[in-house]
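Archive entry: two folds, one per protein. Generate the first.
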Amino acid sequence: MSHHPDSFKCRKTLDVGGKPYVYYDLKDAEKNGLEGIARLPFSLKVLLENLLRNEDGRTVTRDDILAVAKWIEDKGKAGHEIAYRPARVLMQDFTGVPAVVDLAAMRDATKQLGADPKKVNPLVPVDLVIDHSVMVDYFGQKDSFEKNVDAEYGRNGERYTFLRWGSEAFQNFRVVPPGTGICHQVNLEYLAQTVWTREENGETTAYPDTLVGTDSHTTMVNGLSVLGWGVGGIEAEAAMLGQPISMMIPEVIGFKLDGKLPEGTTATDLVLTVTQMLRKKGVVGKFVEFYGPGLSNLTLEDQATIANMAPEYGATCGFFPVDKDTIAYLEATGREKDRIALVEAYSRAQGMYREDGTEDPIFTDTLGLDLSTVVPSLAGPKRPQDRVALTEAASAFHKALHEIRGGRKTDDNPTSTGDSRYMDEGATLPNDVPSDVGYRHDVEGAAHGLSHGDVVIAAITSCTNTSNPNVLVAAGLVARKAHEKGLTVKPWVKTSLAPGSQVVTEYLEKADLQKDLDAMGFNLVGYGCTTCIGNSGPLPEPISEAITANDLVACSVLSGNRNFEGRVNPDVRANYLASPPLVVAYAIAGSMFVDITKDPLGQDKDGNDVFLKDIWPSTQEIADIVRKTVTREMFEERYADVFKGDEHWQKIDVSGGLTYDWDDRSTYVQNPPYFEGMGQEPEPVTDIKEARILGLFADSITTDHISPAGSIKKDGPAGDYLVSHQVRPIDFNSYGARRGNHQVMMRGTFANIRIKNQMVPGVEGGVTIHHPSGEQMPIYDAAMKYKDEGVPLVVFAGKEYGTGSSRDWAAKGTILLGVRAVIAESFERIHRSNLVGMGVAPFVFAEEGQSWETLGLKGDEKVSIEGLETMKPRDLMEARIEKADGSTETVKIKLRIDTADEMDYYTNGGILHYVLRQLAA
């Protein structure tokens, strides 16, 4: 920015290896009026530098900067709002396609507004990694990888053509082709720089590498001291178009680590323990920063594993400061020598380098863990924070089974911790729990039966663990030892290995472990995000049929980070997160009823029992292999041509120039209706009059419930649409793959098979009652009917509405269905801001303890909210509710449009409209 007040006189030059870098010196800023900032948490030093560098007197003022220094006096209380500008944006293809669709639509719209479409480009660097489209259709064979890649290109040709066009049409936009790796691992191993640089006016400025990503696990890179977190596609688009992200200076919870992990435990056991502790503590909307002597006993990959799961523990990020391990990792992964020298010099100059003996920062609050107390663990059956010690896994599953099969429940998404939601110990089974536990049902054409608790999916998958050589080598060693003893995987288990990058394959092959994994059925199935997002592929038909016919509770064990109900696979009702070596062990055991700490996993060639301890590798064994096989050259070689792609990618024909040549026949990519009839000036906001209720929802409705995700059902609005466009059900693909087509996506909004609209008690799935007709119908059909009748809509919800991953379609689908407002007890941070970004008003009940249930709403009421034309951020307003009998009640509600920027977005009809008007002007 040309206009730069530099109120704290801290713009200086740093010389590294004979090259000058402009930087904003925190030590000078401290001398010139920002007292005490040396004791700020490292993560807040990153935010402070961002403000000093971007001070312009308008979006960033002197007062904003002083507020960060005042944070120390205020004992770390959050509150002051700042405008933050990340260095770059990271996307994956599911969320990236709609962002590029919106960019392309904005180019068309600038033409309509009489401006130059060339103006529409990302203003900060954007990297899009295609990693969410690979599905595990083929597994357990030598050629599984090739076959899955062929199927992926077959299904996704239209999207890939579009992304390839985008990579050529837009400046500042790079695409990492399919089959390369998971975006978070590619980020950790290659894209991230820890200190970023920018050339401008003949000078090079150095500043901390920061980013926002369209995937909630963007947080993984905080393990490399890169401050980053997941945002909705909507905020990512804003950041990419140069809009600052408005955020509160957060509270920062210090998490102190002491000691070291005991023999036999893994980074996964540690992260499941940390997740449980932080969930219990309550860190939603806060930063977590790790400190203490225990950091020196974790590898950088261990740190990345912990940072990865910030969305599961609920924090905005889990940050690790720069130290000698950061430098060593940049070295080991083939970063440029100059960059590594800059990272060290810059971090030391800024007081951002941690050494043993560095004074602890001041935190809002702290908690701690002695690493030596961590025990082998799983988490499940449906939430990542529900950790179970491995020794108790079998008995915990027994209890969970009764709950899933109709035991006493408190609710579907219990927010309580502990076992209160399971049946009381020693309680007799209710009559509706079948007595067939342990009974094996026939599987057509197979010599084996199938029972409750059988593990039908064992997947080494997802970004949490596949970036960590220690746990992957451990899995390889478990496979090797099991194979040597003649153990095999049970025939009903679908096994898969989907590493986060090609480097993993290279070191597993170099260590000669891949052949052992292959022998146990863990053949490479693809590089990308698979089981965790429901791309686990279908189970073999006979297995699926046996589960459905006998209403079995089948299980999955995966090394992922998400195990919400209905997410991994529609046939699997209990899902457990575990370390990669435990995934292999459970594939051999084949059932959650096996107590793998005590029971034999199987018999060796001579009929002797083999126990887990007989095939578990020692920490030393693992470390020796990692040291021998993971090399700098490997990273340099694998990432040398990272944007080039395989022959499939290179063969894609790109048409269209500055603007995209939309194909009306495409069922994947369509020009969205957001900008239809848009003028240079926004229309005035109108009050909500006599709106109908589209849905009444209980607590913890996730964005997975709201947003279209997973497979598309034949019978339902989205399936009907595709069939009417001559798409065969076998070619439906997933909602994620069709995210670039609003027609499919709006039909899938609120259509999750497990969502429960309380207007239709006892029914699961996306249905509602249309009023006044009283007809029951799919939510999409009701919304369209209301649209024809000119009736606005509202949604009511409970606590933590929109929890889980950020899903832009949870907000886009909501507005396209005609919903004007969502009234909840509380919102998840990202979903709330996404709703505002799409022009939907979020409200919370103003009175403590009030909810739609305490108001006795049934769903046949009419709702009016006045004063929208004159409202200000966080206003207290009123909703008038007219009941079916004509009586009315007025309820106090608080507007959760929190900032002036958000109000601008809302009054413009959404963030894209706001930006587009700015660009066109």
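Generate the second and append.
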Amino acid sequence: MNWYELTTQETLKQTNSNAQTGLSETIAQQRLKKYGENQLTEQKQSGWLIVFFKQFQDFMVMVLLVATCIAAYLGEVIDAVVILIIVLINSLLGFFQERKAEKSLAKLREMATPIAHVLRDGKWTNIPSQEVVVGDIVKVKSGDRIVADLRILSGVQLTVEESALTGESLPVEKKSDAIKADQLSLGDQHNMAFMGSLVSTGHGVGVVVATGMQTMVGQIADLIVKAPTQKTPLEKRLQHLGKVLIVISIALTALVVLAGVWRGHPPYQMFLAGISLAVAVIPEGLPAIVTVVLSLGVQRMIKRKAIVRKLSAVETLGSTTVICSDKTGTLTENKMTVVELYVDQQSIDVSGGYSVSGQFTNKNKAALPNGLAKLLSYGTLCSNARWQEGTDGHVIDGDPTEAAILMAATKFDQNLVERNGLRRIYEVPFDSNRKRMTVVMQDEHQQHIAIVKGAPDILLDRIRSIELSGRAQPFDQVQRKRIEDQIQKMANQAYRTIAVCIKPVRASVTANHEELESGLTFLGLIGIMDPPRAEAKQAIEQCKKAGIKTVMITGDHASTARAIAQQLDLMPRSGKVLTGHDLTVLSDEELINQVEETYVFARVTPKDKLRIVQALQQNGHVVAMTGDGINDAPALKVSDIGISMGVTGTDVAKEASELILLDDNFSTIVGAVEEGRNIYENIRKFIRYLLSANTGEILVMLFAMVFALPLPLLPVQILWVNLVTDGLPALALGLDKSEKDLMEQPPRPVKEGVFARGLGFKIISRGLLIGMVTFVAFLFAYQNGQQSLEYARTIAFGTLVMAQLIHVFDCRNPRSIFDRHPFGNKYLIMAVLSSVLLLCAVVYWSPLQPLFYTVSLSLKDWLGIILLSSIPTLVFSFTKR
């Protein structure tokens, strides 16, 4: 039901309540029993054991478990134990991550005020908020949290801060009058107060129309529960990789079995050999290395002022194509600030933002007019904002608009905020219908002056004179037209415009408001706005270069949102602006068609945000959603990556997100995107390295079987290569620095596989050459006949290891080893040197020789090994393929 459309009497009738007596205790208890407590219900959580075993449903994990069973069956106990440890480590990481992921509803429940002031049986009483029922008459005052959704019955200067629900930065004045309109957004329902919002000023009375999960916050909580969790691109790609490896494993098994049987070997023996090779295809260390690299990426992100709650989210940022950003507090500072003044027919720019430091600059490049100090002084006097001690030093307490004027006055001259002997003797409070506020001040000579501050369009008809150069002059049509033009200029820039006027009065005139607020002398205009963040414009431009579209989604008015978007160069001239009302008449299919050309969505609801994100996803986009309010939480969860604000963000938004910005800075996202892109490229590098190395191992074994030769490598040697030679350099590749043009490249296609952009060819071709040179080295050493089989295997072992260690430098660049400085990654240098030293230990240290079936090699042997092992990298570096 649209409660805002009903009158107060109709609302009371619908809720079976009475404004004078409230509900009886008996009826209240009946309703409480029938409809339940006024609290948000939590989704039933799975037991820890179920959550743990869910981690084993991942395709790659299942592949590794199969590999573990096969290895154990073949007697390769070390292989089986190592693989099982890796699987358990990854599963435990996923388990602990998931146990922390669903706290959103618990945080939402904490928002309810524990005590409510309600009218029961004609008496005001305090009760626990969870006992509030529909029909209860509730009294609220400044500083209170709204305990349920209320239809306002009466209020005195009642304003409610609803930014967490609506995205609007300013408190909303609440009235009791019915509003006749269809599909009204939350921000425009001025006779409603919603659960979880905060009373900023005044006091009022309302009747409860919804409790618990039926409130607007409850509906948002329901959206969070129902919102599907999206798999990240990295999870999809690794799942695809696992399937590819299974297919390859089955194909290799069949090939080896058939080839061996064809050569006359016993079928059972060949089946076991084929299974051994198939197991070797799977890089056991890949999941662990991915986890470690992502974890190290998380640490780097913290240095860039971003906290990652989910490891795979780091990579997801790198494939982002659209960033849906909230306006208030994300692209803007969420602090109403005086940015322009108009006095003595001159425009004055104010810099410095919401701080006591800044400059006042005349746009005409002339001296500042004398009337500037007077405008700011009287604007401050007609205000209830005051400086006071806070936890972080001196802060301003009061309405955001009045706080902005006080801050500007302090910035101009500290003495302006002092009353200097003036005493307030009367006040006509601001009223949304009157759109103005008036105070009467008395000086030390008992003279009185009225100061009127309010909307210029209302005050223009009440002005009789205008102060120019300290003298009052008649206010004619020319002067009026000049001021109207200035008001329009400020409105076009999304400024909230305040006019300040004065009038000498007699003390007795205060009883007559009409006389008090007419025949005024105009002092000037004050232009106020929530300014864009200084660094946001540059960040958006960087996003454009990176092929990322920025979309503003806000609960603010369309004109304000459009002006901010234009100031940030967020939208092109042909870009569209859609409002929440526009979205209600668009079907999902129509929205999908229009969302590509739309850059600003204004006056939207939480459901609208969900539709927008899902429409973009339907068009194939990877969507990052930023936000700080409760209203952002469902969209944060359903997006590919949710980004919340660490400073101004609500706990609900943080729990629903994967990334938290410590400085609430949009530009931090750009750094996170760069980090994400680099991490994915590094993952591709070590996948290329690991799989080409494994391919070489498999092929050298396959060649030997086909030509009826002994195995060139023993299982323990292959295990050593996979865990030591492969592991350390692969991990070092994950720490490689990004290429200079990384942020000038378009985002990766959503459906791009791991082997895209020629990676599959690189893996097969390099692996083939690595396998060939290793087989040639073994064949030459074995057929020479002057040495033992152990010698031939040691030659093959050394050639395979060195070929991989040289090849790792080729993996740093998609084109050629010569395109990047070979010593640009110090971690890789140390990893390669460590692997070389470990290889020497296995070859020359006598305690390890019998374990790995190796013998000592001569300098001549090593020269041949290095020559052969360099061939794969050099061949493809010169061809650049």
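Annotation attached to the second fold: The chain has a mean pLDDT of 82. The radius of gyration is 36 Å.
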